[in-house]
Design the sequence.
């Protein structure tokens, strides 16, 4: 059934695979096996790396909060003080740009009693600086200047479109100068 060739391989006669050279090993099967093993190992390593990266991110997020990040729940309710240290209000919420993920504005509440009659002031985030000694955000304007700042009532919140954002930015760029 097999006949030895000059190069040491054998040739089969008759039946399936007639006239096909073999060298005793099925190299096609070995190649496929090695490829499958490599693909499986790669998938396992990728999955482990992805899982570890997610775990590392969560750990960094938890430990970095005090260094560079802060929870929104810690920002909301934080006092805002003027350049002379006088309390101007407190941060109610903030607005995040949907595309960049950056905080664009905070909404500061001011006035009213027990939350009734409060006015809300949009403040550009870039004009606020956190001061540890004051345990709050400092806005480089006075209480008198806040009286003429753009504001709204909770029941009548403005559309934060380009025109409104420009009005707010112009006010604070003039007042903080």
Sequence:
């Amino acid at each position: 059934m097999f006949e030895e060739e000059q190069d040491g391989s054998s040739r089969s006669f008759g039946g399936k695979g007639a006239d096909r050279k073999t060298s005793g090993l099925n190299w096609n099967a070995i190649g496929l096996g090695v490829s499958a093993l490599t693909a499986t190992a790669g998938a396992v390593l990728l999955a482990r790396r992805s899982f570890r990266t997610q775990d590392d991110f969560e750990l960094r997020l938890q430990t970095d909060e005090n260094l560079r990040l802060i929870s929104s729940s810690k920002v909301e309710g934080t006092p805002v003080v003027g350049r002379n240290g006088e309390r101007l209000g407190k941060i109610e919420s903030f607005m995040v740009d949907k595309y960049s993920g950056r905080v664009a504005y905070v909404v500061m509440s001011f006035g009213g009693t027990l939350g009734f009659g409060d006015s809300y002031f949009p403040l550009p985030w870039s004009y606020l600086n956190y001061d540890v000694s004051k345990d709050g955000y400092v806005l480089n304007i006075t209480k008198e200047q806040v009286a003429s700042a753009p504001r709204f009532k909770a029941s009548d919140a403005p559309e934060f479109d380009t025109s409104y954002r420009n009005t707010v930015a112009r006010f604070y760029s003039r007042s903080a100068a």
Remarks:
- The longest strand covers residues 87-96.
- The chain has a mean pLDDT of 77.
- Helices lie at 27-64, 72-75, 143-146, 162-175.
- The radius of gyration is 35 Å.
